[in-house]
Amino acid sequence: MAKNRILIVDDEPAVRFGIRDFLELHGYEIEEAESCRDARHIFSTARPDIVIADYMLPDGTALDLLPRLKEVDSEIPLLVLTGHGSINLAVRAIKEGAEQFLTKPIELHTLHVILQRLLEKQRSHHKHLASKSRQVRQTIDPFIGTSAAIRSLADQARKFLTTESPVLILGETGSGKGVLARWLHENSPRAEEAFVDLNCAGLSRELLETELFGHEKGAFTSATSTKQGLFEVAHRGTMFLDEVGDVDLQIQPKLLKVLEDKRFRRVGDVRDRQVDVRLIAATHQDIIQLVREKKFRDDLYFRISTIPLSFPPLRERIEDIPVVAQYLLNKVSTDLGRGEIQLNEDCLKAL
After folding, report:
1. DSSP letters of 73-131?
2. Closest C-alpha to 258, from 216, 303, 195
3. Alpha helices, DSSP H only, in the chain?
């Protein structure tokens, strides 16, 4: 693996030598410059990971150099060194984009720790970007097909991307409700925040309550420690409740309180907590019938169904079957490392 490259900008050879000698012993590759002009040239060609620059240089200052380097690569951090530091100058340097402001003589071990932290921060940032890029590539399109039904759903969904209102997705099991929920989140103003999902089907009242709202230590026999609920985990993001029609009637008022007041209470706690989440719910059941049968609260239904979206089953859009089948086949062949595979006419007719 290539060594991390550091650019040292200082017009005093002795200072450059001291820093270079120390950092080379710790596995860094070093580039040197003695002026702003030299630094700009080396920065453009060598592309260092971090720049360490003396504040006073023969043809300017580190703060003159900083915006010129940012034009080339805005993500590379710059550390400013000075023998005449002041609080005002330090504040100005940080405000203008310097990562650190250090006074001479610099403690080299301290410098090494700072460099390690900056490099780790860079790695984490790059991993995050790579993860986002990979996630975008791997995101399943919920609107595969050309039928009028799926195009209509796509048009409806896109109209509501900027809203914060709750969404209720109706559709049969396996129709793609969960995919649509994640797509709504990833294309919403909350896309950078958490997407937390929970399938409510088959969960007991006690388990569902502690999953959603969390509990305090000692709230019940097995509560040996405090547990954070999923609503807290989803704070500022999106909470997706699949099979919301299965939520126990005793839990529904607490869910309603989250939607109306943005407040909830952990099991065993005596104080309310605030939370900011956008709710997306889904069900395969006839939820209006559940309301009629008093199995689902009507006030909660009206809250979660502000924006209703109905996912059409594939049998109602037969013309989409070839497109969906080919899409799934391509995905499987990619996962298995196989080449492109095409469905022939006989396969399509059988489908």
Report:
1. -TTS-EEEEESS--HHHHHHHHHTT-SEEEESSP-HHHHHHHHHHHHHHHHHHHHHHHH
2. 303
3. 13-25, 36-46, 62-72, 87-95, 108-138, 148-159, 177-186, 205-213, 230-233, 252-261, 287-292, 298-304, 321-335, 345-350
The answer to whether domain 5-135 has CATH 3.40.50.920 is no
- Let me know: does 194 contact 234? Beta carbons within 8 Å: yes
Phi-psi region of 262 (alpha: psi -120 to 50; beta: other; left: phi over 0): left
In degrees, to the nearest 5, what angle opens at C-alpha 302 toward C-alphas 197 and 316? Answer: 70
Q: In the chain, what are the domain boundaries?
A: 5-135, 150-313, 317-351
Cβ-based neighbours of 329, under 8 Å, separated by 6 or more: 341, 343
Phi, psi of 137 (to 5 degrees): -65, -35
Assigned CATH topology for domain 150-313:
Rossmann fold (3.40.50)
pLDDT, averaged per 10 consecutive residues of the chain (351 residues), comes to 84 93 94 94 85 93 90 84 81 86 89 92 68 53 89 93 93 90 91 88 91 87 82 88 94 94 88 87 95 95 95 88 82 69 76 71
